């Protein structure tokens, strides 16, 4: 009887250890949820988009469970550093200023900046032609920074908390044009709201590297880089890319 009890105790201990061993690591994936088609909240309240699906594919490669957490864009880096989530995948441009606050993975896509304005109207993108126009962009983005660095004093710059609010003002006639990521503009131009607008001129900046942010010196960065290389290699990245775009953005 004594030996039987010992066997039962040993079996229970083994099961408990096994349960702990297979318990999945849990991480929180941070995004904005207001930047379609990259990240958005749908009519049912679910967070989705290209960024989120790439993030979930990375989690699958790392064999971790990931919970999606949203944050307002203006406070998204402080939220990461306050540990509200573990990594940030929200179409964030890799800049020297941001690299002082967080670390970035290798780029997971490359973007461009391009103007959008009403169809048919004259809208040239040289400084002389833009002088006096009211141009919108999302605040704390590479587009907003580009306008301030290159057209401050030339155009009236209006910055918005979300890209969607910038489009609302463009649609209502309060803006002459918008500068934003080409791929986001491309998606909006396909919508009912965007049908009266078009791209103007060539991209003004075409080497905007987009990365995943983690806290400084976090080893998660290298795990994400490894997982990113794997999803590119095995075709997972292309499958997600093709769901959103008829061309490669990698």
UniProtKB/TrEMBL annotation:
Record InterPro entries: SBP_3_CS, Solute-binding_3/MltF_N
Domain Solute-binding protein family 3/N-terminal: 26-248
Signal peptide start-end: 1-23
Keywords annotated in UniProt: Signal
Subcellular localization(s) per the UniProt record: Cell envelope
Domain of life (superkingdom): Bacteria
Family according to the record: Belongs to the bacterial solute-binding protein 3 family.
Name of this protein: Amino acid ABC transporter substrate-binding protein
Taxonomic source organism: Pseudomonas fluvialis
């Amino acid at each position: 009887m004594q030996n039987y009890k010992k066997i039962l105790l040993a079996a229970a201990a083994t099961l408990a250890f096994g349960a702990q061993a297979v318990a999945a690591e849990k991480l929180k994936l941070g995004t904005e949820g207001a930047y379609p088609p990259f990240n958005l909240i749908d009519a049912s309240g679910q967070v989705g988009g290209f960024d989120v699906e790439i993030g979930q594919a990375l989690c699958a490669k790392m064999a971790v469970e990931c919970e999606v957490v949203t944050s307002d864009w203006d406070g998204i880096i402080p939220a990461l550093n306050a540990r509200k989530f573990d990594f940030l995948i929200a179409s964030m441009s890799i800049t020297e200023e941001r690299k002082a606050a967080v670390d970035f993975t290798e780029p997971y896509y490359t973007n461009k900046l391009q103007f959008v304005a009403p169809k048919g109207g004259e809208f040239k993108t040289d400084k002389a032609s833009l002088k006096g126009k009211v141009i919108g962009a999302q605040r704390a983005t590479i587009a907003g920074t580009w306008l301030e660095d290159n057209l401050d004093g030339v155009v009236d710059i209006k910055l918005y908390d979300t890209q969607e609010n910038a489009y609302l003002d463009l649609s209502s006639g309060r803006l002459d044009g918008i500068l934003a990521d080409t791929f986001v503009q491309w998606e909006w131009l396909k919508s009912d709201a965007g049908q009266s607008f078009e791209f103007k001129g060539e991209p003004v900046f075409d080497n905007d590297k987009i990365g995943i942010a983690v806290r400084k010196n976090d080893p998660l960065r290298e795990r994400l880089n490894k997982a990113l290389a794997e999803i590119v290699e095995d075709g997972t990245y292309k499958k997600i890319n093709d769901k959103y775009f008829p061309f490669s953005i990698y």
